[in-house]
Structures are given as C-alpha cells and as structure tokens.
Amino acid sequence: MATEPTSRPTNLIAPPFTAKPRSRWDRPLAIAAAVVFFISSAFPVIGCFVKDKEAWPKWFGVLDVSIASVLAILAIAILALGSGKVDKQAEDASYRAYRTLIHGIFAMMVVWVLLGDRIVWSNCLTGFTWRYWLLLYGLPAWFAVFRTIAASRGAHERPDAP
Predict the structure, then answer these.
(1) Per-residue pLDDT of the chain (162 residues; tens, 9 = 90+)
(2) Which of 80, 91, 114, 116 is most buried when burial is the number of CB atoms within 10 A of its CB?
(3) Are 40 and 67 contacting, i.e. CB atoms less than 8 angstroms apart?
(4) Where exactly are the structural domains of the chain?
(5) Which region, left, alpha or beta, applies to residue 150 given φ > 0 means left and ψ of -120 to 50 means alpha?
(6) Of 54, 78, 58, residue with least CA distance to 66
(7) Is 67 helix (H, G, I), strand (E, B) or coil?
(8) How far apart are CA 146 and CA 81, in angstroms?
(9) Half-sphere exposure of 27 (CA within 13 A, CB side)
C-alpha cells in the first residue's frame, strides 16, 4: 500500500529565526547615541586648539572621557540591538552615508595642509580617529535600530489599503 508523503519540509534544517521583537526603546536609544556622538566629537575639536595643557581645566579631560565612555556603552548597545536586524535597506543607507563620510578624510587632509601648524594634533587626532572608526563601524546597526519602530508599524499596515 502506497502512502502519501507527509507535509514535511524537504529541508530539515530550519532557517535561523531572524525576526527579533521590536522594543520601543530602540529608536530613542539610536537618537541618544547620535546626540552623544556629536557632543563627544566637540571635545577633540576644542582640544586641538589648546596649546598649554597645564593651563586647561582638569574637568575638561574628565568630562571628555566620561562622555566618551557613555558613547562607547551606547555604541555597544546599538551593535547588540542591531545584530540580526541589518537588512538590505540598512546596508544601502550605510553605503550612501559612507560615500558622504569618506569626504571627511579628505577634509582633514585639507585642514592639515592649511592649518597644520596652528593645530595641536596630539591633543585631538586620537579622539577624531576612534570616533570616526566607531561611526563607520556601527552605522549599519544604527540605521537598523533607528528605523525599527517605523519598520514594525509599516509591516502591519497594508500599502494598498485606502
């Protein structure tokens, strides 16, 4: 007697579950990370014009390191929340941003040539470098986390609904 095959999938290895629950804190966390990034980036800009470090207030360095630590914690949180959520749309947005951000390297070279003798590079180059690396490294995850609320709302709505 011949039996009909059951409705088992032919591929016995199930694809990984990639849909993560959406949190209402994802987007505000991404916005907070962007704000802290810009505030933190002001410190190397100010620091590059300080000729005498001893005359500069000690709280400036403490505040710089404190805000940079908050930025690092937020970046780790964004990378953790964004893992598995980076899709083609987030990648495309990242590459569009990269095309703009890559000009920052050339802008720094222009500043180096034009103002190189007026800037104390030892006070700011490390700060610029790690912040810029962090921005470029975390951008895909940031885009994925930033649009999670909009994506989850849009997924339930039909585009052809009146």
Answers:
(1) 556 555 555 554 544 444 455 567 788 899 999 999 999 999 998 888 888 878 888 899 899 999 999 999 999 999 998 888 888 888 888 888 888 888 878 887 888 888 778 888 888 888 888 998 898 899 999 998 888 544 444 444 444 444
(2) 91
(3) yes
(4) 26-148
(5) alpha
(6) 58
(7) helix
(8) 10
(9) 9
